[in-house]
Amino acid sequence: MTTDDPGDEGGGTATRLTRTLSGGRTARSEDRRAEIVQAALEVIAERGYRGASMAAVAERVGLTQQGLLHHFPSKDALLTAVLEARDQWDMASAALLSTTAWPLEMLASLVEYNATRPGIVQVFTVLAGDSVTEDHPARPFFRDRYGTVRARAAMSLRAEYGDELPSGLTPEQAAPLLIAVMDGLQVQWLHDPESVDMAAAFRAFVGLLEGRPRPDDA
Question: What is the model's pTM?
Answer without folding.
Answer: 0.69
